[in-house]
Write a structure and sequence with these properties.
It is built from 3 helices and no strands. The protein is mostly helical. The protein has one domain.
C-alpha cells in the first residue's frame, strides 16, 4: 500500500512537470489526424459511408505509423520483430481517441 501511494504521488508530479510536453504531443496527434482526414477527403465520397471509412482510416493510421518508429529502430539494431508493437498501437490509439473525443464538436 505504501509503495502504491508513493508511486501515485511520484507519477502525479511527473505528469504535472511533463504537462506542456504532453499537450504538445496531443496537439501533434490531433493535427496529424485532421491532416490525414482532410487528405482522405479527396479519395472518399462525402456520403455517410465515405465519411465513416475516411474517419476509420485516419483513426487507425496514426497509431500504426507512430508505433512503427520504435519498430524500425529495433529492427535496425536487433534484426528481429519488436515484441510490443500492438501494445504501443493500443496505447497511442487510446490516447488519440481520448483527445479526439475531448475535442469533438457536433456539427
Amino acid at each position: 500500500m505504501l509503495k502504491q501511494s508513493i508511486a501515485i504521488v511520484v507519477l502525479s508530479i511527473l505528469v504535472i512537470l511533463a504537462m506542456p510536453y504532453a499537450q504538445s504531443g496531443l496537439q501533434f496527434i490531433v493535427t496529424a489526424h485532421n491532416w490525414l482526414s482532410d487528405l482522405l477527403k479527396q479519395v472518399f465520397s462525402m456520403g455517410q459511408a465515405g465519411n465513416m471509412i475516411r474517419q476509420l482510416l485516419a483513426l487507425l493510421a496514426i497509431p500504426i505509423v507512430i508505433a512503427l518508429l520504435p519498430v524500425i529502430v529495433y529492427w535496425i539494431v536487433k534484426r528481429s520483430w519488436f515484441p510490443y508493437f500492438m501494445e504501443i498501437v493500443w496505447v497511442v490509439w487510446l490516447i488519440q481517441a481520448s483527445a479526439l473525443i475531448i475535442l469533438y464538436k457536433s456539427v
